[in-house]
Design a protein that fits this description.
The protein has about 50 residues and is mainly β. The protein is built from one helix and three strands; from the N terminus they run βββα. A three-stranded antiparallel sheet has the order 1-2-3, with no helix packed on it. It starts with a strand and ends with a helix. The model has no long low-confidence stretch (mean pLDDT about 80).
């Protein structure tokens, strides 16, 4: 499973990170991309989840 943090964004006083990870579908075997905006401290936790 490939994973990568793509961008760090700032909106007013909050600093957010856009993270994208590749997830393999159990039914078809193809890969899809899941995107999420979160605090930088939460990125590693989110990427480690299946």
């Amino acid at each position: 499973m490939a994973k990568k943090t793509v961008a760090t964004l700032q909106t007013s006083s909050k600093r957010l990170t856009k993270a994208i990870k590749m997830v393999k579908s159990e039914k078809t075997g193809s890969y899809t991309f899941v995107e999420s905006m979160m605090l930088p401290e939460k990125v590693n936790e989110w990427l480690s989840k299946k």
